[in-house]
């Protein structure tokens, strides 16, 4: 019987719900991480869409091979041309290839009744995602048209404007939702820590009564909160990593949108967020209980 009474007293003064705190913070950080992954993949998808933008550069007729080579080198050196595996995304389409493609698509051979091929040799340039805004594309078009040997530059302007407009709207919505989500998660973690420390209020009061300084009382709680935040961040990161691997295994196309560098930065941020929020929440809660009278603790 005495043991039971001792156990109950110990629970009142010193019991702290470690697993509940770690689980709650881990779940909250996992939600943030999940949305962070969504933003990373959405950003990568946006870049992929933007990098699919192409400009058709039609050339003057009767250019020599030397002139064609010079033009290709000129286009390759442009900083607004997309790179893939350190290779500029520039390809040449001869007028014969253009005529064959037209025949394959329409089944009509205009060579039969025209007697000549009216098409022009062309270079197709894929534009880098960082230069895909409508004003920059117009500037790029003017720059290409100023090159000696270029007859005309074309791209689907209305489609590009529609893509940029939709991407901008989606980005604003995602960022707004991310801000709300982060605020909710911070409040959730803060309330979790405060609730956990509520069970420690009499222990804090007891330490005050025996003459312990505020720093001495706060230090173990703050250290524990930071440790729990770090553990929660690691757990959330491990769950995210496992979820990612499963998703990549089930949907192969998702691998095209992966960005390992940003993903690892996100995981590191989760650990840091867990430590900072846990530390600050614990600091505020302990400071609150240090300032309460005995009657207010009940």
Number of helices: 10
Structural class: alpha+beta
- What is the molecular shape? rod-shaped
Which spans have pLDDT < 50 for at least 5 consecutive residues? 1-14
The major sheet is characterized as: 4 strands, antiparallel
Count of β-strands: 6
Helix content: 55-70%
Side by side, the strands of the main sheet go 4-5-1-6
Gyration radius, to the nearest Å?
A: 32 Å
pLDDT average, as an integer? Answer: 79
Order of helices and strands: HHEHEEEHHEHEHHHH
Portion of residues in beta strands equals 5-15%
Question: What would a concise description of this structure say?
Answer:
With 298 residues, the protein is an alpha+beta fold.
Question: What can you tell me about this protein's structure?
Answer:
Residues 1-14 have low confidence and may be disordered. A hairpin with a 2-residue loop joins strand 2 and strand 3. This protein is an alpha+beta fold and 298 residues long. It has two domains: 2-47 and 164-297, no CATH class; 54-154, Alpha-Beta Plaits, CATH 3.30.70.3040. The chain is 69% helix and 8% strand. It is rod-shaped and about 100 Å long. The strands form two sheets. It has a four-stranded antiparallel sheet. Helix 2 packs antiparallel against helix 10, helix 7 packs parallel to helix 10 and helix 9 (214-250) runs antiparallel to helix 10 (260-290). The chain starts with a helix and ends in an 8-residue tail after the last helix. It has helices spanning 2-14, 18-51, 65-76, 95-106, 110-114, 134-145, 157-198, 201-209, 214-250, 260-290, and strands at residues 54-59, 83-84, 87-88, 90-93, 122-126, 150-154.
């Amino acid at each position: 019987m005495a043991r039971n009474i001792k156990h109950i007293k110990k629970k009142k003064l010193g019991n702290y719900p470690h697993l509940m705190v770690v689980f709650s913070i881990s779940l909250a950080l996992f939600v943030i991480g999940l949305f962070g992954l969504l933003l990373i993949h959405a950003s990568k998808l946006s870049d992929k869409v933007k990098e699919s933008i192409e400009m058709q550069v039609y050339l003057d007729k009767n250019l020599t091979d030397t002139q064609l080579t010079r033009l290709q080198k000129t286009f390759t050196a442009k900083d607004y041309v997309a790179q893939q595996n350190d290779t500029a995304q520039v390809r040449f389409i001869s007028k014969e290839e253009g005529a064959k493609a037209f025949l394959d698509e329409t089944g009509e051979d205009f060579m039969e009744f025209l007697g000549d091929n009216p098409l022009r040799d062309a270079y197709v340039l894929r534009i880098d995602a960082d230069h895909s805004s409508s004003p920059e594309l117009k500037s790029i078009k003017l720059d290409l048209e100023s090159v000696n040997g270029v007859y005309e530059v074309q791209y689907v302007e209305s489609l590009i404007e529609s893509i940029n407009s939709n991407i901008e709207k989606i980005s604003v919505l995602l960022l707004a939702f991310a801000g709300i989500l982060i605020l909710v998660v911070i409040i959730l973690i803060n309330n979790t820590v405060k609730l956990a420390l509520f069970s420690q209020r009499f222990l804090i009061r007891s330490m005050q009564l025996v003459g312990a300084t505020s720093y001495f009382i706060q230090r173990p709680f703050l250290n524990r909160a930071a440790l729990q935040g770090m553990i929660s961040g690691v757990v959330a990161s491990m769950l995210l990593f496992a979820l990612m691997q499963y998703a990549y295994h089930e949907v192969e196309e998702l691998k095209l949108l992966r960005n390992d560098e940003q993903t690892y930065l996100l995981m590191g941020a989760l650990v840091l967020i867990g430590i900072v929020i846990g530390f600050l929440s614990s600091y505020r809660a302990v400071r609150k209980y240090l300032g309460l009278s005995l009657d207010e603790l009940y």
